[in-house]
Amino acid sequence: MSVLGALALAGLTGVVAGAPSTSSAALPTAAVAMGDSFISGEGAGAYRAVPNAAGVPQGDPGFSAANSNAFFCHRSANASIEVANLSGISTRFNLACSGGQPHDMANPSSARASGRDVASQIDQLRAVAQTHDIDLVLIGLGSNNSSFTFGSAAAECAGRFISDAWIGWWEFWVPLASWWEGEPVPSEDPCTDNDLATSAELAAATDETAAAVAQILAVLDEVDADGQHRVVLQDYTNPLPHDFDDKFYKEKRRTDTRDKFRALGAERYAGGCPAHRASLAPAHRFSANLGTMVEDVFGRMTTQFPGDDLAYLNVQQAFDGARLCEQSNSPSGTLATPVRVTNSSGAYITSISGYDKNDINRLFADCESFFQRCQESWHPNAAGHAALGQCLAGAWATTDDRVTCARQSNGAILVTSS
Questions:
Q1: Which among 401, 21, 89, 87 has a CA at the least distance from the CA of 227?
Q2: Degrees to nearest 5, angle at CA 226 with 221 and 229
Q3: If you compute the radius of gyration of the chain from its CA atoms, what whole number of angstroms results?
Q4: Which end of the chain, N or C, is less packed with Cβ atoms under 10 Å?
Q5: Is 370 in contact with 32 (CB distance < 8 Å)?
Q6: Where along the chain do its domains lie?
């Protein structure tokens, strides 16, 4: 690919192509975000046009377009990389893509199943280095990989709950389509640890993610104008609480351990948390395992690239006290997007009270055909990305290589390092 073509793919059309300057003082400083939906800004709204693999900017194509469209990378103006207080940084570049996988770092996303029509993120990184001195790179990677994806895990738990709530055991099974994989939900039982990711899958995902991050670091060391940059590896936080507020325990004297609890199902959907209580502990172990994976990748990279300025940013407690259905007024005041499906006009359906099982089936079948109708579900919202931006600012401001970010009971974000 030509340099000019790479510049177009990164959205840098209109600049003069050429080799990176040997004088870093001649280049403006940049912060770059790479990875998946937790980095791109999924759920935060204000999505910007994204250049496709041919370098043509793609605006919103609508709720009936193919989900492979580059726009559905959902790069938000409210993403943490955009709102963080980063002293000394003049320009920010969001190269992350919702649904991004380790594969997509060195390869076009479209080269794999369910990928999007965008260039490899490393090619986009090279384009940024043509015009900017890259001082900070934020990487969030690993929750989607060739073994499992965050979307499939979320669909598994939410789909099982909705199915259990609406369909009695004596009734003919009406398959609810998983809105990520397009496959019927196989069970109405709460999710277990192995339903989300087995130990073998986590080990494979760690190796896959480490290989991709190593590719990024090698290229960054090659193309950065002055060779001085900080790379922050951020892990993940869970949108759901360790347990629900009392309001979401039961409705009309039925808990989620009973058969067919539609009123409770509708209440949890309205609150943004359609999941069994028994799924919450496995869900938190899953997100903790993702944190362990990112920390493991960080450790490997410090060994493989001993001269690089690397940091591990732990954000697992960044949403404490403001997760979905953690308070009775959820989803108000939360830091995550509720599970929501849109109608054909793109308006969110906020209540499914009174829906029968056929209504539910049609509703979630739309997500199979047009994933963008529920793509934002269970991601950080704009307020959540503002919190994550504070976490990133803390990781940028310190020279320490391990940073922890936690939300306090008064809502303040506390960043500590070691």
A1: 21
A2: 60
A3: 21
A4: C
A5: no
A6: 3-417
DSSP 8-state class, residue 246: G
Please identify which residue in the block is written with the tokens 């359609």. Answer: 274
266-324 per-position pLDDT tens digit: 999 999 999 999 999 999 999 999 999 999 999 999 999 999 999 999 999 999 999 99
- pLDDT tens digits, residue range 19-65? 444 455 689 999 999 999 999 999 999 999 999 999 999 999 988 89
Contact present, 302 and 234 (Cβ < 8 Å): no
The rounded distance, in Å, linking the Cα atoms of 230 and 243 is 37
Tokens of 95: 């190269």
SS3 312: strand
Closest to 241 in 3D by CA, of 289, 197, 275: 275
Task: Retrieve residue 146's tokens.
Answer: 């060739």
Give the CA distances from residue 408 to residues 190, 360, 378, 383, 387, in Å, rounded to whole numbers and listed in that order.
30, 38, 21, 15, 11
Q: Specify burial of residue 87 (Cβ count, 10 A radius: 0-12, 13-18, 19+).
A: exposed
Nearest residue to 379 via CA among 272, 285, 289: 272
Rounded to whole angstroms, how far apart are CA atoms 23 and 46?
A: 35
The number of beta carbons lying within 10 Å of the beta carbon of residue 298 is 23
Q: Long-range contacts for 352-359 (Cβ within 8 Å, ≥24 apart)?
A: 352/265, 352/266, 352/269, 352/270, 353/263, 353/266, 353/270, 354/266, 355/166, 355/262, 355/266, 356/166, 357/166, 357/167, 357/171, 357/174, 358/174
Total H helices, total E strands in the chain: 12, 11
CATH class of segment(s) 3-417? alpha beta
Other CB atoms within a 10 A radius of the CB of residue 365 amount to: 15
pTM above 0.85, yes or no: yes
CA distance 70 to 75: 10
Query: In the Cβ-directed half-sphere of 375, how many Cα atoms lie within 13 Å?
Result: 27
